[in-house]
Specification:
heterodimer; A: 139 residues; mainly alpha; two-stranded antiparallel ribbon; 4 helices; 65% helix; elongated; B: 123 residues
């Protein structure tokens, strides 16, 4: 093998996975209740909540898994998460979109202590830090 | 819910979170002591959840019963699962993983208390 990826699921990575798993669980539960009980009130925010839930689940699975497939999944999910929180955060903060209901990413995740804003940066940092070391490089 | 018990549960969860984070900061690998501490705190959370569940399914009215019940289940499950995950790999980071579980559980209990208060005030 030309390169040997270091696992994302050890050491501090486990703290990150725990946080992602908590968000995956709470976002899924929240979106589930919203869609099951009052979907008609605000379809777009509730679908967005569901999308965020899926992204958190995929990021958790990607970070907890091993191998290049899991790493690619984690990268894709975390990048999507970053774009999502920045886009939804900007739109809701500027009041460009009159969202009748909150999502995890509304106002950059203010309702969740801004953890949704910080989390993708930590995720990207961790994925970069544990990135495969190319053979012939330093070390 | 019973307010004094909610306060006890939140204080216990906060103490567990601080202890876990301190363990990571000082390089302590969590073991038997942490497992016992989590057991005590998780027992308090479960007791709280059973009382709240019985009261909600009985006479007490809350505004969003399904949300309340889901939070109730989440509040009981998160701490044991994160602790299992924390102890599965014995490194200093286990303490912080337990802290994450404790904080998440505290948020769930906090939200439960809010829903409960709103239900009592509204009905």
């Amino acid at each position: 093998m030309a390169e040997r990826p270091r696992a994302t699921a050890t050491g501090p990575g486990r703290v990150l996975i725990a946080v992602y798993a908590v968000f995956a669980l709470s976002a899924t539960a929240r979106a589930g209740v919203q869609i099951a009980t009052r979907f008609g009130e605000a379809p777009l925010p509730y679908l967005l909540s569901a999308l965020a839930a899926v992204v958190y689940v995929l990021a958790t699975v990607g970070l907890a898994g091993t191998g290049p497939g899991a790493r690619r999944l984690a990268w894709a999910a975390v990048v999507f998460e970053l774009v999502g929180v920045l886009a939804v955060g900007t739109l809701t903060a500027a009041d460009a979109v009159a969202f009748p209901a909150d999502t995890v990413w509304s106002r950059f995740g203010a309702g969740y202590g801004y953890v949704p804003l910080v989390l993708p940066f930590l995720g990207l940092w961790w994925l970069r830090r544990t990135a495969p070391v190319r053979a012939g490089g330093v070390g | 819910m019973i307010e004094p018990l909610v306060v006890v549960v939140l204080v216990a969860l906060a103490a567990l979170a601080v202890a876990g984070a301190a363990g990571t900061a000082t390089g302590r690998v969590p073991g038997r002591t942490e497992r016992l501490a989590v057991g005590v705190v998780a027992g308090l959370v479960a007791l709280q959840a059973v009382i709240a569940g019985v009261r909600v399914l009985g006479a007490a009215a809350v505004s969003e019963q399904s949300t309340f019940l889901i939070y109730l289940v989440v509040s009981v499950c998160v701490l044991p699962i994160t602790t299992q995950f924390a102890l599965a790999e014995p490194t200093r980071w286990g303490g912080l993983v337990i802290a994450v579980g404790a904080v998440a559980t505290a948020v769930a209990v906090w939200r439960l208390d809010g829903l409960w208060a709103a239900g009592v005030a509204g009905g």
